[in-house]
Structure formats: structure tokens, C-alpha cells
């Protein structure tokens, strides 16, 4: 079998890859290998299937066709393919936003009968003020109903401006106006973008990239931001919370339910149902000691941030978790859910249940979420898991012992409190630390796993290289889970990994050097932190002047491309690996890596490896520091990102084994 070390940096994953081979199960890594060599035209973005004269392929060596049947050249084809990916990624996030706005509307109209309630009144009122909803002498439900209606109408806003986008610094918005990319409603932006990629419409690759940025902005400062806000209203604003991550969170003697996907609408209900006394009694009758809920991917992040529920793993863990034989039921909704799951689950007794009206799986069981009684659906799912538990074969259960402690739950709203305490709450302490050079800058490291690189290896290499250089790291998505599994979300990680300045700051306020701020829609929280830094003063007039950057070290999904593009359009330097399929066009690559900076203030770095990404990010932070005339930083030795890889994995493995439960 292929060496598991080349497939994952995570010891739990490596162990399960051996187990997969014993079980004769195919995983995403095997299927990816089966596809090699991957299509070279596709990799370069040079295959066009936009119309039905083709598919047309441009010869990258210049010997055969240089244009498609319609005359589209490599640059247009690459830009069109990228724009379509952005449209799909932005659609996924923003449709999630629409879904939770619907739930808010239901909660407002139906009250507790809808199954959902307003749990964060302060945020509801703050949003009402921002959105111009009258709240004086009105009930919570009336305010929530008007807010939901206003938010829903934003998705189809024909002219803009998007209300949440008004949070962006005025200078940034002026740049968008000047470029003609100030975002309107996401529905309009996506329809227009797709229209422009239709055969025979937009022929200018750069104009198309700008349109893609506009759609991405409508997601980042619109659909995604609304999703985060509404989820905080419905399910509560996160607070710093302890939990654990990795496959070792599965419990041998309990009914294990994994929630996987993205929207917390059902998973929050499942967490509640798992605490119902009658269901716990049922579990005990079946011989279990209780019901254990753990998450995969961004659903994991949602219930971790608000409920402290444990995280079983990130994207590439979804099949491995099923192969443990300890998962009784996995319930999925939308996005990043592999169609292979029912086949992999068939190795054991595990049930796969789909719930979203937008995502069906022919071989899985279906339990559609009842919007009028979601708790009932959740209870039925817990019951089905208990029933499956009684069919579990303990002799075939194999749970890796690796799990790691973590602290998550940071947000733009609660960070001022954690940074400044009760008496100095605000962003000033962070700005002072940056100005004095104790913190070199702040970098958001986000995004997926991909079988194209050893799982988590890029995330860990980059995050550790940045920490060693006194960079405060904020994370979301599967990237945050990678750091969690390796102990970087523990406050003690500052002593183990951070440079002296960052160590000092973390020790003074008791935070980890890596702050987990949520799921991928919660990248909006990172934008909000940046906005707050600008608003506090002393760090420039827009995001492009701050000593900040972003990175997606193991990008896989179209959502990651949309996020990267809205970060760049918002003025943020963004290291993105593996690069999207743009290598076939020098024009597209040059625009995204160079020319766009003059327009938005941000740009991409498509780094080949994490050493190049880390060096590029550090050089960018230093250039911004210099422009702001901040204190020069004490010299720290740069340790190559790739050199840190083996060192840290060993330490994390040791730590996780120390904390492993009795088998
Ligand atoms: Fe999906 Fe959000 Fe990527 Fe993870 S990080 S693989 S998109 S779950 Ni968003």
C-alpha cells in the first residue's frame, strides 16, 4: 500500500489508512491515485466546455490549436473557468446565508413553535440598529421578522449598496466604486457573472476577473456575513470554550453520531436531542453509556464554537472516521460531503443520513429536516443512531487514540475582551503590540485539505513558521481543525511555538497564539477584525495598509477560491496553494499576482510551497510595517517552514498520546 506518511501528517489518519487497507476500503487518496496522471489541459485551465462545439483544448506548447472553435484564446478560457468556479463557491456560502435567514424568519413568525428561538438578544438589537429596523416598543419577534425580511431582500438587491458591506472602510469602498465592483445582491452578481461567461459574451479576461471579484465581494461582505450574524442571533454568540479534536474523540462505549456539512440549523438540534433524558435512557437500554456527538468539517466548527462539542476531524477525515467502525450514524447536509460515504460506511454498520432538500445521496437514508418541528427530526436521528449502535460489532472497532485539547470560540466581538480584559477592552492592546513589534502582524490561515498534499502538512508548516516569527494567527474551517489536532489551539502552544514577542502577549492575556474564529462563512469575522483594527486608528485607512495577510495552504473547494478572491478584493495579500487552474494564462496570473494590487490594494501569491508562502507573507507584513513607520522588529532567525514539519508532528503526537484515554 502507498506510504501513509505521504498522505497525511496526522498520526491518526496514518493509522486509519493502514486500517483502510486491512478492510479493503478505498478512500479519496486511492481514488485520486487512480486518476493520475490528472488531465494536463484541465490543470492549466485550458479546457473549455462552455459551449457544445467543443470541448476545446488549447495546446500549452504552442504547436496545435491556440484558440477554441469560437476564437476564445487561453486567457479568456482560463478566466472564464475561474469565474465559474467563483460563482459556484460564492453561491454555496451565500445560499447557506439565505437558509439561516429563512430560519430566523420562521423563528420570528412561529415563535418557539418553530423549534428555534432568538438566543442572542444583544446581537439582534445591534443588527436591527445597523439595518434600520425599528426596535423601540416592539417585541423581539417583530424586530426579528423585519430584520429577516430586510436581510432576505438583500440577496436579490439590484443596485446595492449591500448593508453589511457598508462596514468596510470608506477608502476600500471608494476603490470598489472606482473599479465598478461595489457589490450588489449575490443573486444578481452570480447571474450576471454566469451570463458573462456564456458563449460569446465577455471576451476580456480581466473584465471577467473583476466581475468575479464583485460576486465574491457580494458573498464575503453579504451572504457569508449575514450567515454568521444570523447564526449568532439564533444559536448564540461564541465565547472562548475548551474542547478536543481528532478521531480519538469517538467513544467506544457510547453511541457516536457524527454531524458533517455546514449549516448548524440541524446539528444544534441534534446536540439538544442528545441530552434528552428519554433518549439517554434508550441508549442505556441498548447497552451504551451515553450519546456522543462530534463533528466533521465546518459543522464541527459551528457546534464547537457555540457548544464546545468535540471535533472528529477535517475534510480528509470524513471517510477515515467511518472506517473506525465506531460511528453509528453520520448525518450530513450540504457542501464538502463526499458522495463516496455510503460505500465506505458499508464496511461497518454505520448509517448515513441526508437531510437537506438540496443534497440527496441515492444510497443513503433520508430524513428531511421538518422546518416546523426540527427537534422531532433531530430526535428521530438520535433514535436511529441508538438502533444502529445495537448492531455495532465491538470486535471490528478501531479508534485511534489521538486527540488533542483546544480552546476555540473567538470572535471579532469577544476578542477585545480577551485582549484587553474588563478594564481595557478594545483592540488598542493588539494595535499597541503590533506597533511595538511584539506582534509582527496578523494572518488568517483558512481553507481545506486536499489529497494533492499530505493532509495538514501545509497548514502546520505555515502556521508554525508564522508563529515563530511573532505572527498572531487567526483560523477558520478545516485549517483551524488541522491546527487543533496538533495542539496549536492550546494556550501552552505559545511557549512551544511562538517567537518571544508573541509569547509575551499570549502569556499576558492567556490566549493561544492561534485563534479559532469559526467555520468558513465565519471568515467574515476575520474581515470584521480587520475593520475594527482600521477603525481603532493608527494602522492605516483601509485593509491594504494593515500588516495583515491571508493564506489558504491546502485549498480544494470552489468556496476557497471565492474566499481568496474576496480577500484580495478587500485589499488583503493572500497566499493560495495549490494555485487555482490559471497556469495556462500569463494574463490571468499577472493580473491576480501583480496588477490587481493597484486597484484593490490586495493580491495573490500562488506559492509553490509553504516556505515561499511564509517568506512572501513575512516580507509583505514587513513592507506594511515600514510604510506605517512602526517600530523595527527585533531580529529573529527564520526557520524554513518545511523544516518545521517533522519537528512539530513529533511533538504533537507525543502530546496527544499522553492525553489519550484508556483503550
Ligand atoms: Fe470544505 Fe468548510 Fe474547505 Fe473544509 S474548509 S473542505 S470548503 S469544510 Ni471551508
Account of the protein in words:
The chain has 663 residues and is of the alpha/beta class. The protein is built from 26 helices and 16 strands. It has a six-stranded parallel β-sheet. Strand 5, helix 12 and strand 6 form a beta-alpha-beta unit. Helix 10 (264-273) packs across helix 12 (297-307). The longest helix is centred in the first third of the chain and has 37 residues, at 74-110. The two termini are 27 Å apart. The structure holds FE(4)-NI(1)-S(4) cluster (XCC).
Features:
663 residues, alpha/beta, 6-stranded parallel sheet, 49% helix, binds FE(4)-NI(1)-S(4) cluster
How would you characterize the largest beta sheet? 6 strands, parallel
Q: What ranges have pLDDT less than 50 throughout 5 or more consecutive residues?
A: 643-663
Helix segment tally: 26
Structural class label? alpha/beta
Distance between the termini: 27 Å
Strand line-up of the largest beta sheet: 6-5-4-7-8-9
Strand content: 5-15%
Oligomer: single chain
| Dominant shape | globular
Summed up:
The chain has 663 residues and is of the alpha/beta class. The chain is 49% helix and 10% strand.
Amino acid at each position: 500500500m502507498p506510504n501513509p506518511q505521504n498522505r497525511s501528517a496526522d498520526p491518526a489518519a496514518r493509522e486509519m489508512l493502514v486500517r483502510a487497507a486491512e478492510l479493503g476500503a478505498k478512500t479519496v487518496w486511492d481514488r485520486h491515485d487512480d486518476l493520475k496522471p490528472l488531465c494536463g489541459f484541465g490543470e492549466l485551465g485550458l479546457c473549455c466546455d462552455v459551449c457544445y462545439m467543443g470541448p476545446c483544448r488549447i495546446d500549452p506548447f504552442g504547436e496545435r490549436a491556440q484558440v477554441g472553435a469560437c476564437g476564445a484564446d487561453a486567457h479568456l478560457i482560463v478566466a472564464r473557468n475561474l469565474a465559474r468556479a467563483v460563482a459556484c463557491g460564492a453561491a454555496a456560502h451565500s445560499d447557506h446565508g439565505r437558509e439561516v435567514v429563512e430560519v430566523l424568519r420562521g423563528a420570528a413568525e412561529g415563535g418557539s413553535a418553530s423549534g428555534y428561538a432568538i438566543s442572542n438578544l444583544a446581537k439582534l438589537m445591534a443588527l436591527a440598529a445597523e439595518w434600520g429596523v425599528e426596535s423601540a416598543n416592539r417585541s423581539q419577534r417583530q424586530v426579528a421578522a423585519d430584520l429577516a425580511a430586510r436581510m432576505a431582500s438583500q440577496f436579490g438587491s439590484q443596485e446595492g449598496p449591500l448593508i453589511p458591506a457598508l462596514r468596510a472602510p470608506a477608502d476600500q469602498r471608494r476603490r470598489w466604486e472606482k473599479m465598478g465592483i461595489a457589490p450588489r445582491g449575490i443573486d444578481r452578481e452570480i447571474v450576471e457573472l454566469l451570463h458573462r461567461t456564456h458563449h460569446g459574451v465577455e471576451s476580456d479576461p480581466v473584465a471577467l476577473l473583476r466581475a468575479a471579484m464583485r460576486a465574491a465581494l457580494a458573498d464575503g461582505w453579504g451572504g457569508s456575513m449575514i450567515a454568521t450574524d444570523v447564526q449568532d442571533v439564533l444559536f448564540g454568540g461564541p465565547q472562548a470554550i475548551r474542547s478536543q479534536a481528532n478521531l480519538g474523540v469517538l467513544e467506544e462505549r457510547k453511541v457516536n453520531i457524527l454531524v458533517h456539512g455546514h449549516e448548524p440549523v440541524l446539528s444544534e438540534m441534534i446536540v439538544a436531542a442528545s441530552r434528552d433524558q428519554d433518549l439517554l435512557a434508550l441508549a442505556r437500554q441498548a447497552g451504551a453509556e451515553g450519546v456522543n456527538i462530534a463533528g466533521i468539517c465546518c459543522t464541527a466548527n459551528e457546534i464547537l464554537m457555540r457548544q464546545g462539542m468535540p471535533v472528529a476531524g477535517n475534510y480528509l477525515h470524513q471517510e477515515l472516521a467511518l472506517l473506525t467502525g465506531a460511528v453509528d450514524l453520520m448525518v450530513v447536509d450540504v457542501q464538502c460531503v463526499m458522495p463516496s460515504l455510503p460505500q465506505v460506511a458499508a464496511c461497518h454498520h454505520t448509517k448515513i443520513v441526508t437531510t437537506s432538500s438540496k443534497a440527496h445521496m441515492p444510497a443513503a437514508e433520508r430524513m428531511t429536516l421538518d422546518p416546523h418541528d426540527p427537534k422531532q427530526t433531530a430526535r428521530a436521528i438520535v433514535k436511529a443512531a441508538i438502533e444502529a449502535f445495537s448492531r455495532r460489532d465491538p470486535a471490528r472497532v478501531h479508534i485511534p487514540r489521538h486527540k488533542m485539547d483546544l480552546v476555540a470560540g473567538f470572535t471579532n466581538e469577544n476578542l477585545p475582551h480577551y485582549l484587553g480584559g474588563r478594564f481595557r477592552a478594545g483592540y488598542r492592546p493588539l494595535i499597541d503590540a503590533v506597533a511595538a513589534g511584539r506582534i509582527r502582524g496578523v494572518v488568517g490561515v483558512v481553507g481545506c485539505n486536499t489529497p494533492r498534499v499530505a493532509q495538514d502538512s501545509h497548514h502546520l508548516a505555515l502556521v508554525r513558521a508564522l508563529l515563530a516569527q511573532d505572527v498572531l494567527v487567526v483560523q477558520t474551517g478545516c485549517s483551524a481543525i488541522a491546527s487543533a489536532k496538533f495542539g496549536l489551539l492550546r494556550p501552552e502552544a505559545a511557549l512551544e511555538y511562538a517567537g518571544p514577542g508573541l509569547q509575551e502577549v499570549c502569556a499576558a492575556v492567556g490566549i493561544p497564539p492561534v485563534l479559532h474564529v469559526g467555520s468558513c462563512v465565519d471568515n467574515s469575522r476575520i474581515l470584521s477584525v480587520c475593520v475594527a483594527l482600521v477603525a481603532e486608528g493608527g494602522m492605516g485607512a483601509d485593509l491594504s495598509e494593515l500588516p495583515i495577510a491571508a493564506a489558504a495552504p491546502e485549498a480544494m473547494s470552489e468556496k476557497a477560491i471565492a474566499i481568496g478572491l474576496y480577500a484580495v478584493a478587500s485589499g488583503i495579500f493572500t497566499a493560495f496553494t495549490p494555485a487555482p487552474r490559471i497556469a495556462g494564462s500569463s494574463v490571468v496570473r499577472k493580473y491576480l499576482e501583480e496588477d490587481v494590487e493597484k486597484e484593490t490594494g490586495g493580491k495573490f501569491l500562488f506559492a509553490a510551497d509553504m516556505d515561499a508562502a511564509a517568506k512572501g507573507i513575512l516580507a509583505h507584513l514587513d513592507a506594511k510595517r515600514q510604510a506605517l513607520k512602526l517600530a523595527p522588529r527585533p531580529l529573529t532567525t527564520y526557520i524554513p517552514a518545511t523544516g518545521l514539519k517533522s519537528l512539530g508532528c513529533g511533538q504533537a503526537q507525543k502530546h496527544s498520546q499522553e492525553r489519550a484515554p484508556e483503550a
